[in-house]
Amino acid sequence: MRRLQYRYLTAALAASLLAASSASAETLYIEAGRLIDGVTNDVRTGQCLTVARDRIAAVGPCGAAPEGATRLDWSAFTVLPGLIDLHTHLADLGQSADLAAPIKASPAETALVGARNARVTLEAGFTSVRDVGTYRGLTDVALRNAIERGDVPGPRMWVAGAYITIPKGGGELNGVIPNEDLPSDMRLGVAATPDEAAAKTAYLLDQGADFIKTIATGAVLAIGTEPGAPELTVDQLRAVVKVAHSRGKKVTAHAHGAEGIKNAIRAGVDSIEHASLADEEALQLAKTHGTWLAMDIYNGDYIDEIGTKEGWPAEYLRKNRETTDAQRAAFRRAVELGVNIGYATDAGVYPHGLNARQFRNMVRYGMTPMQAIQSATGRAAEEMGRDDVGAIVPGRYADLVAVRADPLADITALEKIDHVMKGGMLVR
Questions:
Q1: Residue 182: predicted pLDDT
Q2: Which of 1, 83, 256, 269 is the most exposed place for a label (fewest CB within 10 A)?
Q3: Can you tell me whether residue 81 is helix, strand or coil?
Q4: Would you say the pTM of this structure is higher than 0.85?
Q5: Strand partners, 56
Q6: How far apart (Å, rounded) are the C-alpha atoms in residues 343 and 379?
Q7: From 1.10.238.10, 3.40.30.10, 3.90.550.10, 3.20.20.140, which CATH number describes the 83-384 domain?
Q8: Closest CA to 407 of 417, 399, 397, 392
């Protein structure tokens, strides 16, 4: 009860502050104790941020607040850009032992679950996400639009709409009913030929997808597919890339196996999800092409522990064991080679709001704390091709987090965010 009362009190105080800032030309003057900007290696003290409406207007040494501005004292905190997760599944039910769960939930119910997921993700300090697919196609588009309208609280979302996958591939809901009998919104991206892949890509973009997610290999969490086995062909992948790039949109590829990773890179995709079984040739190819890797090196532990406890399919648990350690070794080597790496967790496999747990593994497997932070701020924005998020510099959205502990001394400090701001609005 006390915790609930505290949350209500915090919300009321935040509302009062926001009302005050709105009444004073919507300007905030934020005093940071330590400032990490997300793009440089500097840690600055004595810095103040001027926030005008939803953007950062200025960053510089503290002094007198601009006339009419509301001063916000975060001098006891390290202030960073709002965090970015490049691999989430907000608009979905989450992983469980029940293979049929996605089909049991209606699109409306799935969207409502997504709204809850969005709120807890934002409160955890992740002010932007790339949402990389949902079984109920286009539910993510609806959730993104609701957040943008202000109907529900949540992070900025860039969404895929659905998976481009072969029939019965890693992007299908296999093992429940015959795939041909699945609802049509669960098969929006199923493609058997290059022409079908191109057509499905165009359709998803027409329906509001921000980028395209392809399934280049089998999946760990899909019945009847193997992570090391290629699925979409090079020609299919090229057809997707051609359509998406012609519209200025990026393409990412779910790819665990080395051959599928190389197929996707040679086809021109912009990023690879998972990259669990990447060999030296695949990593060197990624470095040569500038292809980004989005490697979820935390959730293997969660799948093994909770999946075993809850009775997830034995096939899932076996494939997870076969990929977890290999993926972490590939991650370490990718860091050594200087391959582009963005922060990507696969939240939805484990509970939303725990996204920051991956930071500790990124440091454990080769990154410095600053590199890990940048992977979820400036570097993540770079991977998405965005110049409006991910950094504390003038002109970008005033998406900020504040932590009392020093994340450079203990990266797990980011698992306990004290304050969150999105677009100049205090979330908590």
A1: 97
A2: 1
A3: strand
A4: yes
A5: 51
A6: 8
A7: 3.20.20.140
A8: 417
